[in-house]
Amino acid sequence: MSQITPQPGILEIAPYKGGESRIEGVADAIKLSSNENPFGPPPAAVEAARAAAARMHRYPPTDHAALREAIAETHGLEAARITCGVGSDEIISLLCQCYAGPGTEVIHTEHGFSMYRISALAAGATPVEVPERARHTDVDAILAAVTPATRLVFVANPNNPTGTMIPEAEMTRLAEGLPGHVLLVLDGAYAEYVDGFDGGAALVDTRENVVMTRTFSKLYGLGGLRVGWGYAPEAITEVLNRVRGPFNLSTIALAAAQAAVRDRPFVERCAADNARLRDWLRDALEAHGVACDPSHANFVLARFADASEADACDAFLRQEGLIVRRVAGYGLPECLRITVGDESACRRVAHAIGRFKAEAA
Ligand code: PMP
């Protein structure tokens, strides 16, 4: 037997499963499984990426200064406290690497994003799952789960895959209730979809133990380029930058993200369309007898009677060339997560689910 063994915890990781993108034998399947922007990337970002391609023989800057400046200006933040990563996944991973490890605990919520558990285990820490209340983050349950070994608490607001959100006052109560040795990570991957919401930036500004993560993969339409960022107190930013790979973001990714963050008309149009189509989709599903919590993100979580009805609906949708996301791995076997597509995709998926329910009745 080989004596080459990975670090403790690694073999407990169930590999991440992304949203499927193909159906055998279907050429033009509609992908509603990965919460991507159905309107594509901002044209200005495509143009910037094209121009940057001519410079691909050069190493990219290590300090990401221009992108950090663009993000800071847009969001009214301090550029020096922004760290850019290969998706917000990398910021999550860096936080675990820097602040958790063997003998420590990392809290995430019951239906929380799977990278929290994966990154905690990869760092040798113990992930601790805390119950939600009817698919909503439960601040009291989180506070009750904190021990002297807790180092990090991950909360996505809005949450994936539930689409639910807790009010800012609850986020503040959580930050204030945590002991000083615990870092609260507010994951704002879907914050842009909530009108007027800062993702938790103000809490980062006023406290020493709060970090916010954000992404270019959703509203900004750059999932394939892999750009995310974190906003943290100075001391934490300084720690993350010691561990971050100096050339983690490519020349092309940096240029495209910088153009995307400055293209406000594009993102405002996408956010408005998403809100309109999301509410339409939820109403249509409810009218077909499929329950959905009000969503604050770019997807809805459709709840069926049980796991077998959800599986049957998924199979029916695939026959129709529609790919949605099963979320049994998130403790929601009776649900399907459906990304809000463009208008025609929303109509197609709602209509198909209506026919599925009618045929089953
Ligand atoms: N957080 C949440 C809640 C997510 O849903 C996702 C993407 N699925 C991420 C973080 C990571 O996104 P990215 O690495 O593309 O920035």
Structure report:
- There is one protein chain.
- This protein is an alpha/beta fold and 361 residues long.
- The protein has two domains: 18-40 and 265-360, Aspartate Aminotransferase, domain 1 (Alpha-Beta Complex), CATH 3.90.1150.10; 43-262, Aspartate Aminotransferase, domain 2 (3-Layer(aba) Sandwich).
- The protein is built from twelve helices and 13 strands.
- It has helices at 43-53, 65-75, 87-99, 114-122, 139-145, 168-177, 201-206, 234-243, 251-262, 264-287, 307-319, 343-360, and strands at 30-31, 82-85, 105-109, 126-130, 150-156, 183-187, 210-215, 228-231, 291-292, 299-303, 322-323, 325-326, 335-339.
- The strands form three sheets. Strands 2-8-7-6-5-3-4 form a seven-stranded mixed β-sheet, with helices on both faces.
- Strand 6 (183-187), helix 7 and strand 7 form a beta-alpha-beta unit.
- Helix 1 (43-53) packs antiparallel against helix 9.
- 4'-deoxy-4'-aminopyridoxal-5'-phosphate binds next to helix 3.
Annotation keywords:
binds 4'-deoxy-4'-aminopyridoxal-5'-phosphate, alpha/beta, 2 domains, 13 strands, Aspartate Aminotransferase, domain 1, 361 residues, single chain
Give the averaged pLDDT, no decimals. Answer: 97
What level of helicity do the residues show? 25-40%
**CA-to-CA gap between the ends?**
56 Å
List how many beta strands DSSP finds.
Answer: 13
Q: Looking at the structure, what is the overall shape? A: globular
Number of helices: 12
Beta-strand share of residues: 5-15%
